[in-house]
Design goal:
There is one protein chain. 12% of the residues are buried. By secondary structure, the chain is mainly α. The protein is elongated, with a radius of gyration of 16 Å. Helices cover 77% and strands 0% of the residues. The protein has one domain (1-88). The chain has helices at 2-21, 29-57, 65-74, 76-85, 87-90. Helix 1 (2-21) packs antiparallel against helix 4, helix 2 crosses helix 3 and helix 3 (65-74) packs antiparallel against helix 4.
């Protein structure tokens, strides 16, 4: 399962790379605009997901800066990685 998470993170990095390359590579005008819109939407959605997940998890697990950054960059895939990293602390139902 960990290799699937790593594969998904690699795909997310490729998507981020294409979207951010729009600042440095001159794409055709229509493609350029679409990539900027997708980049803005992706930043907005991942920031919202990270805010929700960090708020929900912080009572059980103290997340590091790297964990929070992983949530922003990888979204739900980052959450799955954090779930496996802190599985013992998150499964505690006594609190």
């Amino acid at each position: 399962m960990k290799w699937l998470i790593l594969l998904a993170k690699g795909l997310f990095l490729a998507v981020w790379g294409v979207l951010l390359s729009n600042f440095f590579i001159s794409y055709p005008k229509g493609v350029n605009i679409v990539l900027f819109v997708i980049l803005g939407f992706m930043i907005l959605m991942h920031a919202m997901q990270a805010a929700i997940f960090i708020t929900a998890i912080r009572q059980r697990v103290a997340l590091t800066f790297g964990d929070k950054l992983s949530l922003v960059v990888f979204g739900v895939v980052g959450l799955l990685g954090i779930k496996y990293k802190y599985a013992d602390q998150m499964s505690d139902t006594s609190s």
